[in-house]
Amino acid sequence: MFEHNQPLLPKEIFLQRFGKYLLLAATVVMLALGIGVIGYHFVAHFTWIDSLLNAAMILTGMGPVGQLTTTKAKLFASGYALFSGVVFLSSIGIFIAPLFHRLLHRFHLEGQKYTKNE
Q1: What pTM value is reported for the model?
Q2: Which phi-psi region, left, alpha or beta, contains residue 45 (left: φ > 0; alpha: ψ -120 to 50)?
Q3: 81 is in which domain, residue-wise?
């Protein structure tokens, strides 16, 4: 998936890789947001726009906006909040993986250059 013991990728190829990972992270977030919107709409009986607002607020860690009145809605919101925490952190990991790899790869290559010259 990532290069090992090879030269650093050219900037253009790295940016393509970064774009793919950005798209993957955005897709994961959008799918999670869609699950929340559908759940809030059908379980909590919120309007579509209120469902979107609540799902987005929970997904980003801000907290719910609407009042949940039924036990079923509260259980869904609790499960969705736990799910959202994992999804949000995972999507950040997906997003920064190519950047972190490039940084570590650069340090590794620089370390090899110095040890070969000694």
Answers
A1: 0.79
A2: left
A3: 11-117
**AA letter at 68:** L
Q: Is the separation of the CB atoms in 54 and 46 below 8 Å?
A: yes
Contact 58, 81 (CB under 8 A): yes
- pLDDT (0 to 100) of residue 13: 87
At which residue do the structure tokens 């890789």 appear?
Answer: 17
Tell me if 25 is assigned to some domain. Answer: yes
Give the other-Cβ count within 10 Å of 53's Cβ: 17
Q: Answer yes or no: is 4 within a domain.
A: no
Contact 37/48 with Cβ under 8 angstroms? Answer: yes
Nearest to 82 by CA among 26, 28, 32: 32
